[in-house]
Design brief:
Residues 291-325, 336-352, 360-373 have a biased composition (Pro residues). This protein is an alpha+beta fold. It has helices at residues 45-55, 89-96, 101-120, 176-179, 186-202, 208-218, 229-238, 250-261, 425-448; strands spanning 4-5, 9-17, 21-28, 33-40, 69-73, 76-82, 123-124, 133-135, 145-147, 154-155, 287-288, 291-292.
């Protein structure tokens, strides 16, 4: 983005340069439009005074490009005007050379119309030349001319900023009376308009001194080659060396031009078509037709990791009972169904001693629990197997050994009794006594207070 001047005008790119300042294409943040901004390059008092005079000029006319607003920032000042895209008459001559007479008459009529508005404000332009006459980019349509650059203009009666022996302006477009040091007047601007008309018709810069000398020595010459006689009479009336013999007002010259146009031959065809191009070129990066383009975040770079291949659907497997002790998705375990209780079996009779008489063993009481606990694979963690239920032997019978688990496995050992949580009594009793003592001291302190 460009530099923001005075918090309002964003300078984008330079589009021209004058004697006292550079012209920039700028974006007006308040009015939301593109403007031309002329920035003062010199900071001396003389240039600043001329700058103030120029920006104070306010002329509202379709063929006048006058300053619209101004701003100052530290030691820099600028004023703005409408942005004109078609370049100047110098660009047009550079593209086409000599222009068709009817096209020149259209441009001269607009130039005299704008100059009449300037003179109506009592202002003498003093620097009319092709580079200060701008064009809108109208393409092949009717041209639209605008008179610009009032840097050395002055109002009649205002004090001059230069001495009487010093002439300001562009060499080659001075009126004879300007070279003699006379006060600026409206006919001097009309003489410059005549030189501009000759430039458009011939496609080259005229020699004003040789032209004035010829007028003074031989009077009004005949029409040059390629210029219709009716149009030449109007141009010659603007180029008279004597200001008294020249057109006195822009409106008078405009009326004479309208009469001359009626006598011009009809246009010849396609060769008379002139197109006014856009001379500014495209906007820099970051700017669009509606103003600065907002900055957007860059798009994410796609990952180079190949996409996983799609897994084809598989047919559901036949339903089978889950294997015991298999982990599920949540980390729990599927328990096998509990075994059914076995029917009571009579214990095997113990062998009787040889000396004693054989007696039938006492029957074992029925227990609803299996002889052995669940298999170790499905026993929950931290859960001990239930001990076998002891039965009292019958009187006179020999003690029976604990029954072995089904399947011939070894009997599980009897688990040790679990320890109750908490500190042992040897620690807990002193701690409780100490707490009671502290409690008693606290009550005593409260009562004593």
């Amino acid at each position: 983005m460009g530099e923001v001047f005075a918090g309002r005008y964003e300078l984008i790119d330079p589009i021209g340069r004058g004697g006292v300042g550079a012209v920039w294409r700028a974006w007006d943040q308040r009015r939301r439009r593109y403007v031309a901004a002329k920035v003062l390059q010199q900071s001396d008092a003389h240039a600043l005074l001329r700058f103030v005079r120029e920006q104070a000029l306010r002329i509202d006319h379709p063929h006048v490009l006058a300053p619209a607003s101004w701003a100052a920032d530290d030691d820099k000042v600028l004023f703005t005007m409408d942005l004109v895209r078609g370049g100047s008459l110098a660009h047009l001559i550079g593209d086409y050379g000599p222009l068709p007479p009817r096209f020149v008459c259209t441009l001269l009529d607009q130039l005299l119309s704008g100059l009449a508005a300037v003179h109506a404000e009592g202002v003498v332009h003093r620097d009319i030349k092709p580079a200060n006459i701008l064009l809108e980019a109208t393409g092949t349509g009717r041209p639209h001319l605008r008179l610009s650059d009032f840097g050395i203009s002055m109002r009649k009666g205002e004090p001059r900023l230069t001495g009487t022996d010093y002439v300001v302006g562009t060499p080659g477009y001075f009126a004879p009376e300007q070279l003699m040091g006379e006060e600026p007047d409206f006919p001097a601007d009309l003489f410059a308009v005549g030189l501009v008309a000759l430039y458009l018709l011939q496609g080259r810069r005229p020699d004003s001194q040789a032209l004035v000398a010829h007028f003074l020595a031989h009077g009004t010459p005949g029409a040059p080659a390629g210029i219709p006689e009716s149009l030449w009479q109007v141009v010659a009336g603007l180029l008279q060396p004597d200001p008294q013999a020249r057109f006195r007002t822009a409106n008078g010259a405009r009326k004479a031009l309208a009469s001359a146009v009626e006598l011009l031959p009809e246009p010849g065809g396609e060769g008379d078509e002139v197109e006014v191009f856009d001379q500014l070129g495209p906007l820099p990066a970051g700017y669009g037709p509606e103003g600065p383009v907002p900055v957007t975040a860059p798009a994410p770079v796609p990952s180079r990791t190949p996409a996983p291949h799609a897994v084809p659907p598989q047919a559901p497997a036949p339903s089978t009972p889950p294997p015991p002790a298999s982990a599920s998705e949540t980390g729990s375990f599927h328990l096998a169904p509990p075994p059914r209780p076995h029917p009571p079996q009579a214990p095997a009779p113990a062998p009787a001693p040889a000396s004693a008489s054989a007696q039938p063993p006492a029957p074992q009481p029925y227990s609803p629990y299996p002889a052995a606990p669940y298999p170790a694979a499905v026993t929950p963690q931290y859960q001990a197997a239930a001990p076998p239920q002891a039965t009292a032997p019958a009187p006179g019978a020999a003690p029976t050994a604990p029954s072995a688990p089904a399947g011939g496995g070894a009997a599980l050992p009897t688990p040790a009794p679990r320890r109750r949580p908490g500190p042992p009594p040897a620690v807990a009793v002193p701690v409780v006594l100490l707490a009671l003592a502290c409690y008693a001291v606290a009550i005593w302190a409260l009562v004593s207070a």
